[in-house]
TrEMBL record:
Catalyzes the formation of acetyl phosphate from acetate and ATP. Can also catalyze the reverse reaction. Its main location: cytoplasm. Homodimer. It comes from Nocardia camponoti. It catalyses: acetate + ATP = acetyl phosphate + ADP. This is Acetate kinase. Keywords: ATP-binding, Cytoplasm, Kinase, Magnesium, Metal-binding, Nucleotide-binding, Transferase. Its EC number is 2.7.2.1.
Amino acid sequence: MSDLVFVLNSGSSSIKYQLLHAKSGEVLASGIVERIGEPDGKIVHEAGDTRLIREGAIPDHRDGLRQAFELFNDTGIDLKTIGITAVGHRVVHGGEVFYQPTLINKEVLETISRLSKLAPLHNPANVIGIESTLELLPGIPEVAVFDTAFFHDLPAPARTYAIDAKLAAEYDIRRYGFHGTSHQYVSEQAAKFLERDTTELNQIVFHLGNGASASAIRGGRAVDTSMGLTPLEGLVMGTRPGDLDPGITPYLMHIANMDLADIEHLLNRESGLKGMSGVNDFRALGKLIESGDAAAKLAYETYIHRLRAYLGAYMLDLDRVDDIIFTAGVGENSVEVRADSLSGLERYGIHLDGSRNATRTPGIRRISTDDSPVTVLVVPTNEELAIARAAIDLVD
Ligand code: ADP
């Protein structure tokens, strides 16, 4: 059977896609459709050495995907006939219902749509992505892989909010966690690298991208994570604040006359690094710090302070820690973030090797010293590959 999978990550304002072989991970083509719904939309499509850029209005997700399919044709790939075995979808919220890769049918699609109440910014875009591929690639099995799945079985105290239990039950309020596909993938890759089984390892993962989350994993099972009912909780992120006193919301409503829409916009788009410094991109933040910008410096220090608080909590929770993993855009690339997150922790068994940390090589790498009791690793994440493999396994 062919192991060719089309993976779609249909987000609120962008779509990422890949056509890849699930076994080898070889990518035949990939692309990103950006600024959907705005007049200056853009598609960057890559296939082998060819890079095509298309600019212009992309009214909606369906049209974005239709245009991306045209670019496949322009590079000589007909997705309908090339022999795709499965379509894999990243779906953000599976609620209490979905915690395994799931074959999509009408009922599943309706349930994902119903779960939009828990992820109003994400699940509706996922649903449109699924509807579009069902239409554009008829007859190919489609599989949903859920961002919340890895955290479904968090121990009860780690998944429970200390609020009215009846209210929580009635409205499905619990800590769900996100980025689960990435946390699971990098923790498994780390185990392979260390030639150990995940069941033998206690691991801490920092997924630091635009969104950022941490997890504590005992013996292959997630026992805590920093994101909650929504992806707003936990670490400081590009545009989200992470942990906040819940009292800030009613305070702003009273004192600053903000309504619900204002608060949602503030928390999702205008907080975090952007709120503190004006920029959400880590490279831009670095440049501001170099230029002596005090707000940017404070934003960075707050980011590190929060990250270390989670590290400390998870170290106590796990008791013995075998490895700490950094992944995603910031985690894989920022020498400073890794160094500052782990500085001065030698008495807890964490010995970073400064030169290894500063040396960039492709693939997984160890950045702790050889005799460090806790191994520190940089593990490139690959959610598309994890989704492709999950889809193929299910269809098989
Ligand atoms: P997303 O959550 O959008 O998938 P990514 O995992 O791609 O995010 O991470 C995006 C973040 O990674 C941005 O803040 C970007 O600045 C940061 N990043 C990318 N490359 C570097 C680099 N070389 N040094 C520092 N930060 C980087």
